[in-house]
Amino acid sequence: MTNDFLISEIRKKDSFLCIGLDVDLNKIPKHLLEVEDPIFAFNKAIIDATNHLVVAYKPNTAFYEAYGIKGWKALKKTIDYLNINHPEIFTIADAKRGDIGNTSAMYAKAFLEDLGFDAVTVAPYMGKDSVEPFLSFKEKHTILLALTSNKGAFDFQTQIIDNEELYKQVLKTSKSWEYSDQLMYVVGATKAEYFKEIRKIVPNSFLLVPGVGAQGGNLQNVCKYGMNEDVGLLINSSRGIIYASNQLDFAEAAACEAEVLQKQMKAILYENSHSV
Amino acid sequence: MTNDFLISEIRKKDSFLCIGLDVDLNKIPKHLLEVEDPIFAFNKAIIDATNHLVVAYKPNTAFYEAYGIKGWKALKKTIDYLNINHPEIFTIADAKRGDIGNTSAMYAKAFLEDLGFDAVTVAPYMGKDSVEPFLSFKEKHTILLALTSNKGAFDFQTQIIDNEELYKQVLKTSKSWEYSDQLMYVVGATKAEYFKEIRKIVPNSFLLVPGVGAQGGNLQNVCKYGMNEDVGLLINSSRGIIYASNQLDFAEAAACEAEVLQKQMKAILYENSHSV
After folding, report:
1. pLDDT, tens digit (0-9, with 9 covering 90-100), for B167-198
2. Cα dihedral A146, B153, B168, B108 sign
């Protein structure tokens, strides 16, 4: 998927919402545990109920690997279902991979080609040659961890190198890599004040923002500092949406929660279009 | 597996060799492609031929994910085969994972409990709460990326923070984490001169050293600067051993290559025991 197509979907749906499909069998409605593939059944119901409200879905691979082969089958069925029924939706494998060049190339092929995701999240610690293999896939996107939403982000990411935090070095350095126009960045919503600085370095890039909702981030603030003229944000919410109810009405309840966020987004987009 | 058990195996076998089981169907002998599970057949033959020469095996998960569900089945069969037939062997899932706490916990359970690996490699970029879930498993080990063997290691890992390279900050900071005695570290063999400095910070920890062989690292130098009185090193070789031949004799050829390294290790251990 091209950036332009993603932007046009955001404008069409008045939404830059991404739903994290982080399926935990301990949290989904009990009645689903009786069907053949509860993980896929849950995802399909969530997708069917919410696809008109979102522009992206993001399964975190940890939740699928935790169920072994059964989990991988459910992940494959989920991405196949999305690619066949909703090719207009941007799909992100939240895998946080990164390895030496030839090994990163294996991960890139697995997620972007074989499974057919539009994007994959990648960790920057191993540098350029660990990330570039992901960037070599046309019309695919590499979402590099910059500033994450967890407490541990302050252990290394905000440490100062050459008068500047490590995460800013990651942003700056990555801009020099081949096909860097296919880069997006993970920036945690729990630190809205950082977005202003980040936009000075990557004014045009899409930012994937986890941490709205369950992790406490504030949508208004993120948009105030992080939005650019093409919107440039994908706001992810996982638990707050998909576990809104654990009863028979779980999909409708998820759609209600998604709609709350989508309406806030619509209002922000409307405000912005009138203030520009 | 405890550190003491691993050390006793190293002493018993006069070896601190780890073989990387990075199976690429384009590189294995053609005749194996006709069997039902070529990846497992290849691994089984390599393990059967080399287990007396090594103390550890390290499948890199990228090579298995690249083959989807088939790959995960082969990974599971490989670790099951090792755990049943060679419980004395230290097994490492080279996964380089790392995510927010509750998600890291899913990865930790998948690799250390469900698959039953002794250790898993983890990326440090997301800090303490992304690593500690891995450390909470008793008699299991978390192998943190410190200084990797690729060119991209110089992009961020060797950048200076507070007068000290980032990878040294990773070593120091991680020592304060809960159950840090279960930490080991990845240190690339391509930079033997760094081991001296690293040993000042983590004198007692095991170091997993990739990059001997195909990536050009030198065993003598690594041991000179990196070995401690409990040996404290696991030297990994992948391509140089497992692809020594792509003919019918591939397992014997792999054993020959492994034996070359094991004999060098034996000589180094003998020298050291007489110089102390």
Report:
1. 999 999 999 999 999 999 999 987 778 999 99
2. positive
Structure-token match 């296919």, residue found: A182
Q: How far apart are CA A102 and CA A124, in angstroms?
A: 16
- Give the contacts of A18 (CB within 8 A, at least 6 positions apart): A54, A55, A56, A57, A58, A90, A92, A208, A234, A235, A236, A237
pTM over 0.90: yes
Please state whether beta strands B164-165 and B17-20 pair in parallel, antiparallel, or not at all (unpaired): unpaired
Whether B80 and B59 have beta carbons less than 8 Å apart is answered as no
Strands B207-209 vs A207-209: parallel, antiparallel or unpaired = unpaired
Q: Does A115 touch chain B (CB under 8 A)?
A: yes
Domain housing A144:
3-275
Catalytic residue among B96, B109, B224, B266: B96
Contacts of A215 in chain B (CB under 8 A): 100
Phi-psi category of A161—alpha, beta or left, where left has phi over 0 and alpha has psi -120 to 50? beta
Tell me what ipTM this predicted complex has. Answer: 0.94
Is residue B58 part of the annotated active site? The answer reads: no
The DSSP 8-state label assigned to residue A134 in this structure reads H
Split into its structural domains, chain A has a count of 1
A177-214 residue pLDDT tens: 999 999 999 999 877 789 999 999 999 999 999 977 65
What distance, in Å, lies between the first and last C-alpha atoms of chain B? 28
**Alpha-carbon distance A187 to A208, whole Å?**
6
Under 8 Å between Cβ of B123 and B153: no
d(CA B108, CA B87): 20
3-state class (DSSP) for residue B256? helix
| A25, A38 Cβ separation under 8 angstroms | yes
Interchain pair A166, B145: CB under 8 A: no
Dihedral in degrees, nearest 10, Cα atoms B82, B84, B88, B91: 30
Provide the CATH number for the domain around residue A179. Answer: 3.20.20.70
CB B265 within 8 A of CB B16: yes
